[in-house]
Specification:
Elements lengths: L1 H14 L5 H25 L1 H15 L1 H7 L8 H25 L9
Helix pairs in contact: 3-4
Keywords: Membrane, Transmembrane, Transmembrane helix
InterPro entries: At2g27730-like (IPR045284)
Length: about 110
Protein backbone atom coordinates (compact mmCIF):
# COMPACT_ATOMS: atom_id res chain seq x y z
CA UNK A 1 0.00 0.00 0.00
CA UNK A 2 2.87 2.34 0.75
CA UNK A 3 4.28 1.79 -2.72
CA UNK A 4 0.92 2.59 -4.24
CA UNK A 5 0.72 5.84 -2.33
CA UNK A 6 4.30 6.73 -3.25
CA UNK A 7 3.66 5.93 -6.90
CA UNK A 8 0.50 8.01 -6.87
CA UNK A 9 2.28 10.98 -5.31
CA UNK A 10 5.21 10.77 -7.75
CA UNK A 11 2.92 10.45 -10.76
CA UNK A 12 0.97 13.51 -9.63
CA UNK A 13 4.14 15.54 -9.24
CA UNK A 14 5.41 14.76 -12.72
CA UNK A 15 2.08 14.80 -14.55
CA UNK A 16 1.39 18.40 -13.61
CA UNK A 17 -2.22 17.61 -12.74
CA UNK A 18 -3.36 18.89 -9.38
CA UNK A 19 -6.46 17.25 -7.99
CA UNK A 20 -9.00 19.21 -6.03
CA UNK A 21 -10.43 17.95 -2.75
CA UNK A 22 -13.41 16.18 -4.35
CA UNK A 23 -11.21 14.28 -6.80
CA UNK A 24 -8.83 13.27 -4.01
CA UNK A 25 -11.74 12.00 -1.92
CA UNK A 26 -13.15 10.04 -4.87
CA UNK A 27 -9.75 8.52 -5.59
CA UNK A 28 -9.30 7.52 -1.95
CA UNK A 29 -12.76 5.91 -1.89
CA UNK A 30 -11.92 3.98 -5.06
CA UNK A 31 -8.62 2.75 -3.63
CA UNK A 32 -10.27 1.67 -0.37
CA UNK A 33 -12.97 -0.15 -2.34
CA UNK A 34 -10.37 -2.03 -4.41
CA UNK A 35 -8.43 -3.01 -1.30
CA UNK A 36 -11.64 -4.19 0.38
CA UNK A 37 -12.46 -6.34 -2.66
CA UNK A 38 -8.99 -7.91 -2.52
CA UNK A 39 -9.42 -8.68 1.18
CA UNK A 40 -12.84 -10.22 0.53
CA UNK A 41 -11.39 -12.33 -2.27
CA UNK A 42 -8.67 -13.64 0.06
CA UNK A 43 -11.27 -14.26 2.75
CA UNK A 44 -13.43 -16.23 0.29
CA UNK A 45 -10.45 -18.45 -0.48
CA UNK A 46 -10.34 -19.31 3.17
CA UNK A 47 -7.42 -19.92 5.50
CA UNK A 48 -7.58 -23.69 4.92
CA UNK A 49 -6.85 -23.39 1.20
CA UNK A 50 -3.97 -20.96 1.74
CA UNK A 51 -2.31 -23.16 4.35
CA UNK A 52 -3.13 -26.28 2.33
CA UNK A 53 -1.31 -25.03 -0.74
CA UNK A 54 1.86 -24.29 1.25
CA UNK A 55 1.70 -27.43 3.36
CA UNK A 56 0.65 -29.73 0.54
CA UNK A 57 4.21 -30.20 -0.64
CA UNK A 58 5.38 -31.17 2.84
CA UNK A 59 2.67 -33.83 3.10
CA UNK A 60 3.56 -35.35 -0.25
CA UNK A 61 7.35 -35.37 0.13
CA UNK A 62 7.52 -36.59 3.73
CA UNK A 63 8.93 -35.41 7.04
CA UNK A 64 12.25 -34.12 5.72
CA UNK A 65 10.63 -31.30 3.79
CA UNK A 66 8.84 -29.97 6.84
CA UNK A 67 12.14 -29.25 8.61
CA UNK A 68 13.53 -27.35 5.59
CA UNK A 69 10.29 -25.47 5.18
CA UNK A 70 10.74 -23.67 8.50
CA UNK A 71 14.28 -22.53 7.63
CA UNK A 72 15.31 -19.60 5.45
CA UNK A 73 14.23 -19.64 1.84
CA UNK A 74 17.19 -20.29 -0.43
CA UNK A 75 16.92 -20.44 -4.20
CA UNK A 76 18.01 -23.71 -5.76
CA UNK A 77 18.00 -22.28 -9.29
CA UNK A 78 21.72 -22.20 -10.17
CA UNK A 79 21.54 -19.83 -13.19
CA UNK A 80 19.56 -17.35 -11.13
CA UNK A 81 22.03 -17.58 -8.26
CA UNK A 82 24.94 -16.99 -10.65
CA UNK A 83 23.11 -14.01 -12.14
CA UNK A 84 22.58 -12.49 -8.70
CA UNK A 85 26.23 -12.95 -7.77
CA UNK A 86 27.35 -11.49 -11.11
CA UNK A 87 25.05 -8.50 -10.60
CA UNK A 88 26.37 -7.83 -7.12
CA UNK A 89 29.98 -8.07 -8.31
CA UNK A 90 29.21 -5.74 -11.22
CA UNK A 91 27.58 -3.13 -8.97
CA UNK A 92 30.46 -3.25 -6.48
CA UNK A 93 32.96 -2.95 -9.33
CA UNK A 94 31.11 -0.01 -10.84
CA UNK A 95 30.99 1.79 -7.50
CA UNK A 96 34.70 1.18 -6.96
CA UNK A 97 35.54 2.40 -10.44
CA UNK A 98 33.44 5.52 -9.94
CA UNK A 99 35.02 6.27 -6.57
CA UNK A 100 38.53 5.72 -7.92
CA UNK A 101 38.04 7.96 -10.97
CA UNK A 102 36.35 10.77 -9.02
CA UNK A 103 39.55 12.12 -7.49
CA UNK A 104 41.47 12.61 -10.72
CA UNK A 105 41.08 15.86 -12.60
CA UNK A 106 42.70 16.51 -15.95
CA UNK A 107 44.74 19.66 -16.17
CA UNK A 108 44.06 21.71 -19.23
CA UNK A 109 47.00 22.88 -21.27
CA UNK A 110 47.04 26.65 -21.62
CA UNK A 111 49.06 28.33 -24.32
Amino acid sequence: MATRNALRIVSRRFSGKVLNEEEKAAENVFIKKMEQEKLEKVARKGPGEQAGSAGGEAKVSGGAASSTESGPKVSEDKPRNYAVVAGVVTVIGAIGWYMKSGGKKKQEVQE
